[in-house]
Amino acid sequence: MDAHKKQTGESEAPAVCKACEARHGGICAALSASQLVELNKHSTRRKVEAGNEVIGQGESVGSYSNILNGVVKLSKMMADGRQQIVGLQFAPDFLGRPFLSESSVTAEAATETEICCFPRPIVERMVGEARELERKLHSQSLKELDEARDWMLTLGRKTAQEKVASFLYLIATHIDPEKSGGNSTTFDLPLSRADIADFLGLTIETVSRQMTKLRKENIIVIENNRHVIVPDKRRLRYAAGND
Amino acid sequence: MDAHKKQTGESEAPAVCKACEARHGGICAALSASQLVELNKHSTRRKVEAGNEVIGQGESVGSYSNILNGVVKLSKMMADGRQQIVGLQFAPDFLGRPFLSESSVTAEAATETEICCFPRPIVERMVGEARELERKLHSQSLKELDEARDWMLTLGRKTAQEKVASFLYLIATHIDPEKSGGNSTTFDLPLSRADIADFLGLTIETVSRQMTKLRKENIIVIENNRHVIVPDKRRLRYAAGND
DNA sequence: CGAAGGGTTGAAGTCAGTCAAATAATGTGG
DNA sequence: CCACATTATTTGACTGACTTCAACCCTTCG
After folding, report:
1. Residue B177 counted as domain residue
2. For residues B30 and B123, what is the distance between their CA atoms, to the nearest angstrom?
3. Domain count of chain B?
4. Does B80 share its domain with B14?
5. Contacts of residue B81 in chain A, CB cutoff 8 Å?
6. Measured between CA atoms, how close is B107 to chain A, in angstroms?
7. What is the 3-state secondary structure (H, E, C) of chain B?
C-alpha cells in the first residue's frame, strides 16, 4: 500500500510523525503528507534537560522546533538581574518566529523536554508555500497574546494568594493528562519555587507561604514539594479570583 | 490620467486613502490599489470621544477598524471590578481579529479618537484573498505580543517609580510627533491618572506621588497636569530601569 | 457661587519583601 | 546503606513600599 502511494506520487506521513505527540494540534497538522515527509527528512529529535536554554534572548536563531513533551519557559531579564517569566509553552507549541532572526525572550526547558528541530531555511520555505501553516502560526501567536494579557491582569491586580492559585490553576488546566475526569486533578509542578516566583512577580518566600496557606485551607494537597492534588478545581479557580 | 487607468482596468487609490494618516504602515499598506478602492466603498470614518467603547469584552464584533489618530486602551476587568489595561494602540493599528467574533478585551478610546471602520464580511473576504494582508495582521499580532511581554516584566518586577517612568517613556516614544529631534520631547498624556494606575497595576495616589518625585528629580516637567516635558529621554529611560 | 471631577498630599495600615535560620530533599563518595 | 555536603523549601521576625483612608487644592461648568 505504501508502495502504491509512492508510485502515484502520493506520500504517507512518516512513521515517526504518525506516532508523534505533536502530530495533531501542532504546526504539523497544517502540512500535507508530502510536506511532512519533506520536513521530516531534515528534522531531528532532541532531548533538552531541565534548565538548558533552547533559544537565548537576543541570540540569533539557528533552528525552529516543536515541543513534543515537557514545559518550556520564556523569560526576560533586566540589566540588574531581575527576571520575569513571560510565558510557558507546552506540547505541541511551536518555538521560534520564522523570518525573525532575533528573539526577544530566552526560552529554557523548565522540565526535561523533548523537541523536534527544523532547520531555519526549510521552515521558512514551507511557510512561504503552505498558507495553512502561516495561519497556524498566526493563530498560535494570538493564543499567546491572549495568555500574555490574561497574565498581565494577574501580575497587575491580583494578590499573592490569588497569583499562586492562578498559577496552580493554569498548570492544572494545561498539564491535565485527561485524568481530570471530574473536578479533581493531580499533577507534578513543572517549575521550582524560584521559577514560580519569577512567573508571578513574587519572591520564593511569598510563594511558599501562599502555598502552605492554600494547603491549610484544604484547597490543595502537597506531596514531596512537587506533587499537587487538587480535590476541587472550582475552589481553586475561585481562589484565583477567576469569578 | 485617472480615466486612462480606469480604461486599462487599473485603479488609483481613493482620494480619502491617499490623504489617510494610516495609509502607510497600517493594514491598508498591504492592499493593492484596486483592493483599496473596494474596501473604501464600504468603509466609514468615525469619531469616538474619550471614554467611549470601541469593542466590548466578550461582545460580538460587528466591524473592524483602523486607528487614524488618538489612543485606544485595551483593558480587562475582574468580576469584582479590579481593572488592568493590557495594551495601548496608536495609529495606524488595526482593531479586531478577523474570524474571531468574540473579543477577550474591551477597547475604549483613551483620547478623542478617529477610526476607519470596515464591515466584517469585507475584511474577512479580503484576508482570504490577500496574503499580504494576512501577513500584516500576523506581524501586528507579534508586535503586540512583544509589547505585552515587555509590560509583564514591568508589572512583575519594577518598582512604582520605574513603572511610572516606563509609562512616560512609552508614551514619549509613541506619541512623538517627530518633534523629538534630539534628546528632549514634549507631549500630552493620553491617559488620566486613573488610567495610568490601571495600566501600571498601581493606585492613583501612588502614580501621583511618583510623578511629583520624578518632577522633583528634574527628570520631567509637568504643566497643567497633562502636559509633560522630558528634557533628557536617556535619563527617563534610565529611571525606567531600561538599562 | 457651589458642585463635581481630577489631581495632590498626608497619616496610618497592610501586604509582600528582606534577612536569617531551621528543615527537608537530593546527591556524592566511602 | 550511611555520613556528609549541597540545594530547595519552609518558617519566623522585622522592615518597607505601596495602599487605604481622608483631607485638600484646583479647574471647570452649570
Report:
1. yes
2. 13
3. 2
4. yes
5. none
6. 13
7. CHHHHHHCCCCCCCHHHHCCCCCCCCHHHHCCHHHHHHHHHHCEEEEECCCCEEECCCCECCEEEEEEECEEEEEEECCCCCEEEEEEEECCCEECCCCCCECCCEEEECCCEEEEEEEHHHHHHHHHHCHHHHHHHHHHHHHHHHHHHHHHHHHHHCCHHHHHHHHHHHHHHHHCCCCCCCCCEEEECCCCHHHHHHHHCCCHHHHHHHHHHHHHCCCCEEECCCEEEECCHHHHHHHCCCC
CA B54/CA B113 separation, integer angstroms: 10
Q: What is the pLDDT of residues A113-165, one digit of tens each?
A: 999 999 999 999 999 999 999 999 999 999 999 999 999 999 999 999 999 99
The three-point CA angle A21-A142-A95 to 5° equals: 45
Q: Where are the alpha helices (DSSP H) in A84-186?
A: 120-129, 131-157, 160-175
Domain closes at, from B121, B144, B167: B144
Gap between the Cα atoms of A98 and B142, Å rounded:
11
Nearest CB neighbour to B149, from listed A87, A150, A200: A87
pLDDT band for position B61 (50/70/90)? low
- Three cell numbers written together for B102: 468574540
* Candidate from B82, B141, B241 with C-beta closest to A141: B141
- If asked whether residues B18 and B137 sit together in one domain, one would say yes
* Domain end call among B92, B119, B144: B144
Q: What percentage of chain A exceeds 90 in pLDDT?
A: 77
Residue of B nearest to A96 (CA): B142
Separation in Å, CA B152 to CA A75, B79, B87, B146, B163: 10, 21, 11, 10, 11
Q: Identify whether B121 is preceded by a cis peptide bond (ω within 30 of 0).
A: no
Asked if residue A203 keeps its beta carbon closer than 7 A to nucleic acid strand C, the reply is: yes
Against a cut of 0.85, is the pTM above it? yes
Contacts of residue A12, defined as CB under 8 A and 6 or more positions apart, other chains included, come to A2, A5, A33, A37
Q: Which three cell numbers stand for residue B93?
A: 493599528
Find the domain containing A220 and state its range.
158-239
Distances (CA, A) of A242 to A67, A153, A154, B48, B56: 28, 11, 10, 31, 19
Owner of C-alpha cell 513571560: A86
Upper half-sphere CA count for residue B163 (Cβ side, 13 Å): 25
Do A94 and A25 contact (CB within 8 A), yes or no?
Answer: no
Within 8 A of A150 by CB-CB distance, chain B residues are 76, 104
